[in-house]
From TrEMBL:
UniProt xrefs under NCBIfam families: TmcD_fam
Domain of life: Bacteria
Organism field: Desulfovibrio psychrotolerans
Protein name: WD40 repeat domain-containing protein
Length: 418
């Protein structure tokens, strides 16, 4: 995390809040959320019928709302929630609502540094995005697949640009969807489009598109690849060139295409979640060499270890190592790291976290009703009634643990086990 340099990394176990139990004057309290640095706990509270507030540690913001939902912390520690006032919706940031109001708001998204917050909005039955409280100038009949670039400079969504009548397959097949970037649509129109993806510096946008009932491809800045496929998944930009790769299905098998040309020969039962190393020299993905058996592949070569479910592919900061979660029969979640499985098995596990130097890996897990933090396949910090994802110190020697025992929020900085 880029903000962790300023956090308190003194080795200690500290009580942040003695009791996060609902306050006596409140009717109820929703789920607790904890800031990335572990210094603040927050929750939506019901103060009275039709009156909601935002609690942070032991105080409640003065502003109250008719309704509030989907609370979350931004990367830089701002507490955000979607709120309703006078039958209009907006986003409240640290208790202060945006001035602009909408018919509805959902799907808040944050830039990497937290300075930009975007959300999907609906106003007068038209849809689009709002950025820091300012909506696109043009809204559309339908919008989905909302995206905010990592640097926060651009937004995108799949939008409907032609009206459809009831039971109107002719117009649908002719194409009704496009991609809007900062509210402005591409010239090309497609039968379907999905999930726009930004290049590293947000100069370009790519998306999956459907051309006919049976033909799919990738469009980059509205320009189609020269090849069509039986299906495609999310595209991925090469960090140091203009190239785009995507999983593609050809001849009933999955592989990877680059700018429309086959890069990984289609030989997998599935292939998705492509990620490049920062220097663009390595391409990782989740693949299924056999039916119902998934693993991780590097440059088209799969690991020897597999599982019926593999998810949450995560690369080390330098892109030289990879970790993912594996699951057998929805009972035994475990970590797959560099082609080997950790020994621990858990009822639930969350996305792995690498240290900045890539030497250490941590993850949050649950066994029964108890939560824990596992670092380098060893438990650290004890058990909790609730826990949040861990974070490493910038030098990789310590790990931050955020957990609750009873109603008490603890902030633990522990040494990384070797």
């Amino acid at each position: 995390m880029q903000f962790s340099e300023s956090w308190d990394w003194e080795r200690a176990e500290r009580v942040v809040a003695e009791s996060l139990a609902p306050m006596e004057e409140h009717k109820w309290q929703e789920e607790i959320h904890v800031s990335p640095d572990g210094e603040t706990a927050a929750a939506i509270v019901c103060i009275d019928d039709g009156q909601f507030g935002l609690r942070m540690n032991d105080t409640v913001h003065d502003n109250t709302f008719d309704k509030a939902w989907k609370p979350s912390f931004s990367p830089d520690g701002k507490f955000c929630a979607i709120v309703q006032q006078d039958e209009e919706w907006t986003l409240a940031v640290d208790g202060e609502p945006w001035e602009e109001r909408y018919g509805f708001v959902w799907d808040p998204r944050f830039s990497a540094d937290g300075s930009v917050i975007a959300a999907a909005v609906q106003q007068d039955a038209l849809y689009g995005m709002s950025v820091n409280g300012a909506a696109w100038e043009t809204l559309y009949e339908n919008a989905n697949g909302f995206a905010l670039s990592e640097n926060g400079k651009r937004t995108a969504a799949v939008v409907q640009v032609r009206s459809l009548g009831q039971a109107d397959p002719v117009t649908f097949r002719e194409g009704v969807y496009s991609v809007a970037v900062d509210g402005e649509t591409w010239d090309n129109v497609f039968m379907n489009a999905w999930q726009p993806v930004f290049s590293p510096y947000a100069h370009r946008v790519a998306a999956q598109v459907r051309l006919t009932l049976y033909d799919y491809s990738i469009a980059v800045d509205g320009i189609l690849w020269p090849m069509q496929f039986q299906c495609v998944w999310d595209p991925c930009f090469q960090p140091n060139s203009s190239s785009v790769v995507a999983p593609v299905r050809q001849g009933g098998k999955w592989g990877v295409a680059e700018d429309g040309n086959i890069l990984w020969k289609p030989r997998f039962f599935n292939c998705w979640h492509l990620q490049y190393s920062p220097d663009g020299s390595k391409l990782w993905g989740i693949v299924a060499p056999g039916y119902g058996q998934f693993t991780v592949a590097l440059d088209g070569k799969e690991w020897n270890v597999s599982a019926p479910v593999v998810t949450d592919l995560t690369l080390s900061p330098d892109g030289l190592r990879a970790a993912a979660l594996g699951n057998h029969d929805n009972k035994a979640w475990h970590l797959l790291l560099d082609g080997k499985a950790w020994s621990g098995r858990y009822d639930m596990a969350w996305k792995p976290v690498f240290s900045a130097n890539g030497h250490h890996v941590a993850l949050r897990v649950r066994s029964g009703k108890r939560y824990g933090i596992i670092v380098n396949d060893r438990p650290v910090g004890g058990e909790f009634d609730k826990a949040w994802d861990p974070a490493f110190s910038p030098d990789g020697t310590k790990v931050l643990i955020r957990g609750m025992r009873g109603n008490t929020l603890l902030r633990i900085v522990a040494d990384v086990p070797r």
